From TrEMBL:
This is DUF1877 family protein. It comes from Bernardetia litoralis (strain ATCC 23117 / DSM 6794 / NBRC 15988 / NCIMB 1366 / Fx l1 / Sio-4) (Flexibacter litoralis). InterPro entries: DUF1877 (IPR015068), YfbM-like_sf (IPR035944). It comes from the Bacteria. It holds the Pfam family DUF1877.
Length: 163
C-alpha cells in the first residue's frame, strides 16, 4: 500500500479538540476518523503529489505558503511526522480555497501536462508510464472530486492526512 491522501471535514469543536492533542494522539485520532462512517471525507489515494505538481509545478513536499492551489492539496497548517503528514485548514481558509477553485478550468493544464515532467521531478508515486491522456484524466478526476468536497464543505474545517 502506498501513501494516500484523505480529506476530512470537521466542525470548529472537533478542530479545537484535535489541535489540543499531542502529535502521537493526533495521528491516531485522525486515523480513527478516516475509518468512521459518520465523517464527511474524500480519499484521492496516490494522486495528491501529481495534483499538486500539475497545479503548482512543484512537489507537494514543498508546500507554497499563501497559495490556495497548494493549500487545496496539502492544507494550510501542516504537522509533519516521520512518514506521515497531517494538516489543518480552518474554515476561513477553506472558504478562500473554495473561491479560488471556482476560477479554475482544469482542462487548461492539459496543454502543459507531460508525464515525463512528473517522472523527472520524482513526483509520487512515480508511475508515470501510462498513456498521457489516461494519466491526465486520472489527475483531473482527483481534482474534480476534491474540488466538489471543498465546495460542499466550505463552511467547515478540513483535515488533510497524507500517509
Amino acid at each position: 500500500m502506498g501513501i494516500r491522501a484523505v480529506y476530512i471535514a470537521v466542525t470548529n469543536e472537533e478542530m479545537d479538540r484535535l489541535e489540543n492533542l499531542s502529535e502521537k494522539k493526533l495521528l491516531k485520532e485522525v486515523e480513527k476518523m478516516e475509518e468512521k462512517e459518520n465523517y464527511n471525507k474524500v480519499n484521492i489515494d496516490k494522486m495528491w503529489d501529481s495534483l499538486h505538481f500539475v497545479l503548482t509545478e512543484i512537489t507537494a513536499s514543498e508546500p507554497i505558503e499563501d497559495n490556495p492551489l497548494s493549500e487545496f492539496v496539502v492544507g494550510v497548517y501542516p504537522i509533519l511526522f516521520e512518514d506521515e503528514f497531517v494538516s489543518f485548514s480552518p474554515q476561513e481558509d477553506v472558504q478562500k480555497i473554495a473561491e479560488a477553485l471556482k476560477k479554475i478550468d482544469f482542462t487548461t493544464y492539459k496543454a502543459s501536462f507531460k508525464p515525463k515532467n512528473l517522472a523527472k521531478n520524482k513526483i509520487y508515486p512515480n508511475i508515470w508510464v501510462d498513456a498521457e491522456d489516461d494519466l491526465f484524466n486520472e489527475i483531473k478526476n482527483s481534482f474534480d472530486e476534491l474540488m466538489k468536497f471543498y465546495l460542499k464543505n466550505k463552511h467547515l474545517n478540513i483535515i488533510v492526512s497524507i500517509y
